[in-house]
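Example record for the data management plan.
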Amino acid sequence: MSHIPAFGLGTFRLQGQVVIDSVRNGLELGYRTIDTAQIYGNEAEVGAAIAASGVARDELFLTTKIWVDNYSRSKLVASLKDSLTKLRTDRVDLTLIHWPAPNNGVPLEEFMSALADAKAQGLTRQIGVSNFNIELTKQAIAAVGKDNIATNQIELSPYLQNRKLVEFLAEQGIHVTSYMTLAYGKVLNDPVIGEIARRHDATPAQVALAWALQLGYSVIPSSTKRENLASNLLAQQLKLTADDMAQIATLERNGREVSPEGLAPVWD
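Corresponding structural encoding:
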């Protein structure tokens, strides 16, 4: 069984001093899971913030993601070593293939087995995928075995509940990590979520995050504001009722926010 912490700090779109401040604030507030990626261009800043924090490496769970340019067997491990240098650590806890990029010229079997090699070399404790549909997840399982795929990190929010894919992943014992759980903030203005938030004396963000947590997913919300970082953490204590969960289930609208051409698969 893989172990992926339920609550982490995302760093997508955060650069320079902004990401340093966000990670520093997050670590001070008690976050211990940090999610980055090669393409974010902030691994060195994340590493600097961690180093300055004084938090012991063994207390942290670090995730990075291999970018498309580094998928070939000749590049993948070297690129991960470069990421480790930037992050100032000798290993990460989880490394993901960032996008399936079906037509980028590197066969799925090649990059999955190269990723498994990185794990065998001790550069990463667990490996997984991100933005994979059912068919590509099946291919990844065929390449490295389902026990080697710790998670599929997917866009998942009250507006994009991804039920077919989630059901398949549950059957395979592959954990779901939800990113963009707030749909770029769109769900924060949803009247149904707002009403649930009022009933619980909570924020809409806490409701959306608690919904994902109660479904068994991990979440990695990001924020540049310390008060929001602190507030988001409290979602872990919020217990929604069966009725709340049923109401949020009705919000599905296939509201996908991210689907880059050439990188994304055909969605389920």
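Summary line stored alongside the record: The chain has a mean pLDDT of 97.
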